Structure formats: C-alpha cells, structure tokens
C-alpha cells in the first residue's frame, strides 16, 4: 500500500471500487466491487413522520467539514453490535488526505459543543459515496442522513452510494441493485457537475422541504 495514494483511491471510486480492511489494527487493504450494491435513491428518499418531527425540532446543530478526522475516528470505534471496524489506519489516512484535497466531506451533529453523531463520504462529480456514520445521541444517525440528502439534492448530485444494504438504511428507502446497474448509474453521475458546498447551512425544516420537493 506504500505507493497507493489518495488520487489512486479516487480512481478506484470512479471505477466503482471501494476499500475495506479486516480489522482496525490490520494494515492490509483490499478493494471491493460487490455483485450487489446498496444505493439510496435521492428522488425517493423516505423520511418517516416521527423522524420529520425530530428533524424540524432541530435537536442538533448541523455542521459540515468542521471535524472530519474526528468523525472518521468515531466511525472507526468499536461499539454496540460492532466489535470490529473496517477502517484501519491506512484507510483513515487516505480519507483524511481526500478531505484535504476537497473530495471527502462530513455532515456532523453537535450538541452543547460536543460532536455526538455524523457521517462522512467521498464526493466525485455527481456521485457521493457514503462511507460510515456514528451516533452517540438519540436519532443522530437518522438526522445526519436527512441533512446529507438535502445537501446532495441542492448540490445537483445524481447518485448516493450506500455500498451495502443494512436494516438501518432500509427505513430511508435504500434499494439493492446489480453491479451492472450500479456501474450504469455511476457513469451517469460522473458525467454531471455537483457541488457539496452549494449551500452553507440549512435548518431542519428547509432540509425536509428540499427532500419533499424532490419526491
């Protein structure tokens, strides 16, 4: 991996491939191009009534890109139901470098000055590759995806790659598609221009309005 840098990783994403590791302290990195891929269709992203009420109440201050490394480290921690992580130290360093280059971003939930939840991913043209999320407060792992999707819609994105299907993602309308279908969608997204920072900040009601107009 000594010769594999952040630019090489971007090229992998453009080909539909992403990195993983077996454990936090295992420095080996391998590349994945799964037969089945989880995606979150932006135009049909689902927000339940209960979650909508939570988002409108704005229990968290939403920030972007203010604590990138801290979010990655939080995602790399072992937690309830997750004894191990795929984010090893080489992968951590690659994402930090991508962030420094402007290709990796966070959506963060803050409460009383403390980082309590969030997610990070990679942005390339009109595609956003969601990598991982964490939550230390109730619903932070639900509020942050809502704000991410609203930001992607405003920014002109075409694809939100979730990589693998999980029970958590199904509540938002995630679907599993074939590798061939995914590569077709990826090609279309990479032909589009998008801007993660097109909007500086967005309240909960505004985020929900953006999502409802896209549906």
Describe this structure in words.
With 215 residues, the protein is an alpha+beta fold. 38% of the residues lie in helices and 24% in strands. The chain contains eight helices and nine strands. The strands form two sheets. The chain has a seven-stranded mixed sheet, with helices on both faces. A two-stranded antiparallel ribbon has the order 1-2. The longest helix is centred in the C-terminal third of the chain and has 16 residues, at 140-155. The chain is globular. The termini are far apart.
List strands and helices in order, with pairings.
Blueprint: H1 6-14, E1 18-20, E2 30-32, E3 36-39, H2 49-57, E4 61-64, H3 68-76, H4 89-100, E5 104-111, E6 114-124, E7 127-135, H5 140-155, E8 159-163, H6 167-170, E9 175-178, H7 179-190, H8 204-214
Parallel strand pairs: 7-8
Antiparallel strand pairs: 1-2, 3-8, 3-9, 4-5, 5-6, 6-7
Helix pairs in contact: 1-4, 2-8, 3-4, 5-8
What features would you highlight for this structure?
215 residues, 7-stranded mixed beta sheet, two-stranded antiparallel sheet, 8 helices
């Amino acid at each position: 991996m000594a010769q594999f840098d952040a630019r090489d990783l971007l090229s992998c994403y453009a080909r539909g491939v992403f990195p993983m590791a077996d454990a936090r302290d295992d420095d080996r990195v391998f590349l994945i191009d799964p037969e089945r891929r989880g995606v979150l269709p932006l135009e049909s992203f689902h927000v339940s009534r209960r979650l909508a009420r939570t988002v409108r109440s704005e229990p968290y201050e939403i920030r972007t890109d203010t604590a990138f490394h801290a979010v990655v480290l939080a995602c790399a921690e072992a937690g309830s139901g997750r004894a191990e992580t795929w984010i090893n130290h080489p992968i951590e360093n690659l994402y930090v470098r991508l962030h420094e280059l402007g290709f990796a971003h966070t959506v963060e939930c803050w409460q009383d000055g403390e980082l309590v939840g969030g997610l990070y991913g990679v942005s390339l043209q009109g595609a956003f590759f969601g990598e991982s999320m964490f939550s230390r407060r109730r619903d932070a792992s639900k509020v942050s995806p809502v704000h991410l999707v609203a930001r992607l819609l405003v920014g002109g994105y075409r694809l939100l790659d979730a990589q693998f299907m999980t029970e958590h993602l199904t509540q938002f309308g995630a679907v599993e598609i074939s590798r061939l279908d995914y590569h077709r969608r990826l090609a279309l997204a990479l032909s589009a221009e998008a801007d993660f920072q097109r909007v500086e900040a967005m309240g909960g009601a505004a985020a929900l309005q953006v999502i409802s107009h896209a549906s």
